[in-house]
Specification:
about 70% helix
Length: about 150
């Protein structure tokens, strides 16, 4: 199994778990004399099995990410961490730009003028650089995922 296939399977397991949780919750209580549309005990058993499979799969994914080299200095796990940090930093700066760029209307000259405390143009350039770095790293990671075999 390729790493990308394992990541897709992980996402599928996670969706199935969330769906089962909702279905279990919907069938926990019924009116006396009625039958639940699904047996919560069966679903709890299915949920336990899926969680066990998911746990095993995540361990293999983590092992693979820690063993595979992204480049000469970093493992795939290192690159994933750096990519996530690029995303977080870009998100923060995008919010700063959005908020600092908002115009506050004044109804008369006597109202207090609101001005930005940051250089929006400079921060936008940083956002653009972070976006490019994120895209480049993510593209390389995604490409590697389809070429790497999942480790046991």
């Amino acid at each position: 199994m390729k790493l990308a296939e394992a990541l897709i399977a992980r996402a599928d397991y996670q969706k199935r778990i969330e769906q089962l949780k909702k279905r279990i919750h919907m069938n926990l209580k019924i009116q006396e004399g009625d039958e639940p549309s699904e047996d919560p005990n069966e679903m709890l058993s299915e949920l336990a099995n899926i969680r066990q499979e998911l746990t095993s799969l995540i361990k293999k994914i983590n092992r693979t990410n820690c063993e595979i080299k992204f480049d000469e200095e970093r493992t795939l796990a290192d690159a994933l961490t750096e990519r996530d940090q690029l995303f977080d930093q870009r998100s923060l700066l995008t919010k700063v730009v959005d908020e600092a760029s908002q115009q506050v209307g004044r109804y008369s000259q006597s109202e207090i003028r609101i001005v930005s405390t940051v250089d929006v143009k400079s921060i936008q350039k940083q956002v653009d650089q972070l976006s490019k770095a994120y895209r480049e790293m993510d593209t390389k990671i995604q490409g590697m995922n389809w070429n790497i075999d999942l480790l046991d």
